[in-house]
Design goal:
Blueprint: E1 2-7, H1 11-27, E2 32-37, H2 40-48, E3 56-59, H3 68-78, E4 83-88, H4 94-97, E5 104-107, H5 112-125, E6 133-135, E7 138-140
Parallel strand pairs: 1-2, 1-3, 3-4, 4-5
Antiparallel strand pairs: 6-7
Length: about 140
């Protein structure tokens, strides 16, 4: 199962990203879960306390409070393996994206084809970081 975290403070943008991701994962018949956040502080707190583990984080930069770059720097200290992609309306921070080894920097409005290519790249090359156990004949994810 692919676990996606979306950190976007604008509800309309957040819903659009979720919708596009759902379209992609459903069309590819890939099991997935999507967790959304409206602030960098919230996603960071859940990663820090272990309640959230992701294969990919789709991060806006212009968040209220802690911005997406600073949030990603802190996330990287906790998880060196999670893929981070920036989805933002600003071209100003592309170079800073390299500091956290971002796999993509996409400027909004998102082009669906490019967004799907990003998700395809991830799903074709990465195995999700989850474990399925069979306990007494029942699957536990």
């Amino acid at each position: 199962m692919f676990r996606i975290g979306i950190c976007e403070d604008q509800p309309d943008e957040r819903n659009m990203i979720v919708e596009k991701a759902e379209i992609y994962f459903d069309s590819e018949n890939l099991r997935h879960s999507i967790q959304t956040y409206s602030s960098g502080e919230t996603i960071l707190a859940e990663i820090e306390d272990g309640t959230a583990v992701f294969d990919l984080i789709l991060m806006d930069i212009g968040l209220g409070g802690m911005n997406g770059i600073d949030t990603s720097v802190e996330i990287r200290k906790l998880d060196q393996f999670v893929h981070i992609a920036f989805l933002t309306s600003s071209r100003d921070y592309a170079i800073e994206g390299y500091e956290v080894s971002a796999i993509a920097y996409m400027v909004k409005p998102l082009e669906e084809e490019k967004f799907f290519t990003l998700l395809e790249k991830l799903t074709r090359t990465e195995k999700p970081r989850s474990l399925t156990l069979k306990i007494r004949g029942r699957r536990k994810d």
